[in-house]
Amino acid sequence: MDHAADAHRTDLMTITRYVLNEQSKYPESRGDFTILLNHIVLGCKFVCSAVNKAGLAKLIGLAGETNVQGEEQKKLDVLSNEVFIKSLVSSGRTCILVSEEDEEATFVEPSKRGKYCVVFDPLDGSSNIDCAVSIGTIFGIYMVKDSHEPTLDDVLQPGKHMLAAGYCMYGSSCTLVLSTGEGVHGFTLDPSLGEFILTHPDIKIPKKGKIYSVNEGNAKNWDGPTAKYVEKCKFPKDGSSSKSLRYIGSMVADVHRTLLYGGIFLYPADKKSPNGKLRVLYEVFPMSFLTEQAGGQAFTGKQRALDLVPTKIHERSPIFLGSYDDVEEIKALYAAEGKKE
Ligand code: AFP
Q1: Could you give the maximum distance between any two Cα atoms of the chain, in Å?
Q2: PANTHER family this protein is in (predicted)?
Q3: pLDDT digits (tens, 9 = 90+) for 298-313
Q4: Ligand 1, atom nearest to 278 Cα
Q5: Domain ranges for the chain
Q6: What is the full DSSP assignment across 130-168?
Q7: Are 135 and 128 in contact (CB under 8 A)?
């Protein structure tokens, strides 16, 4: 970026202006999506501020509760969840909310109901909070089929039916990456303005990357194709260079790097976790949506990730996502394995 030019920039593309521009392409649109997104952005700004203050404000530490996956909840998880739920309900544009932190879906009361369903992980990567590693919020948005009678089926839809998806990463800067189905755009929070400004227009993932990202500590339990793929990353037989390993253990940060630099992010199935670890609705789908919109691919080991039809709101799935050519390689290994069976 040209920081000198930036300092003199007067024509700022804020995230609201970007969404309003998009909205103007649809004359029948009434601005509901813009209002919904503004409430998501408010949640992100609040969490960003809380994360930044966490060390000082003693927000770090256990809240003394466990979430539905039996994981210890941190105070920041609890806070972030509350902020998003309240902000989304008060938008008047939502009818069903699914959060990683809540066992049951939230059905918004009829007087405050709108047509959108939001699935989200308010603070993903929370085991990294105490050491100040980048963490983030992940979200996906569906349209309800019938706003008078919303049912769980409205959120148990394949990821390809999402209208929009994104994440906000609370790192060295606060970056919100969004796709409304027309490419992927990154906005960075200018703390002095309190506005997300378009800094990464039309993100395209490199066709092939030089990085693989996986928790190798699970290698002894991997299946054949995953083990072969990682072996190939380290010891390529075609004369190409070995790939570098980068793994933060915070999906938002690992996927953000994958989108910008290319490569592959893997959270495969293994003998101990036959469905992998990551949650379909608010981790696998939004990140797969963004990856495809950026020109990459997302695969579960069996199918295109966005074709998966979830049957439970907290369902898990293996995931391989990233540069088109890199995911093609793992797909080929699974296809070869399938032929042997
Ligand atoms: P936490 O929220 O418990 O830190 O889990 C983060 C996460 O869901 C995802 O963000 C990471 O990619 C993945 O788990 C890391 O899992 P491993 O620690 O098993 O590698």
Answers
A1: 64
A2: FRUCTOSE-1,6-BISPHOSPHATASE, CYTOSOLIC, FRUCTOSE-1,6-BISPHOSPHATASE-RELATED
A3: 999 999 999 999 999 9
A4: 8
A5: 3-200, 211-338
A6: GGT--EEEEEEEEE-S-TTS--GGGTSS-GGG-SEEEEE
A7: yes
Confidence of residue 54 (pLDDT cuts 50, 70, 90): confident
Q: Which of 71, 212, 267, 287 to mutate to test the pocket of ligand 1 (most atoms within 8 A of CB)?
A: 267
User: Structure pTM?
Assistant: 0.93
DSSP labels, 26-39: -TT--SHHHHHHHH
| Assigned CATH topology for domain 3-200 | Fructose-1,6-Bisphosphatase; Chain A, domain 1 (3.30.540)
The percent of residues in the chain predicted with pLDDT above 70, rounded, is 91
Say if ligand 1 is within 6 A of residue 74 CB. no
Give the DSSP letter string of 213-280.
Answer: E--GGGGGGB-HHHHHHHHHHHS-SSSPPPPEE---S-HHHHHHHHHHH--EEEE--BSS-TT-SSBI
With a 6 Å cutoff on the Cβ, whether 115 touches ligand 1 is no
What is the rounded average pLDDT for all residues in the chain? 92
* CATH class name, domain 211-338: alpha beta
Condensed to tens digits (0 to 9), the pLDDT of residues 149-204 reads: 899 999 999 999 999 999 999 999 999 999 999 999 999 999 999 999 999 999 99
Number of helical (H) and strand (E) elements in the chain, helices listed first: 8, 15
Contact 124 CB / ligand 1 (< 6 Å): yes
Question: How many angstroms does the Cα of residue 92 sit away from the middle of ligand 1?
Answer: 32
Cα 34 from Cα 71, distance rounded (Å): 34
Contact yes or no for 206/327 (Cβ under 8 A): no
268 Cβ inside 6 Å of ligand 1: no
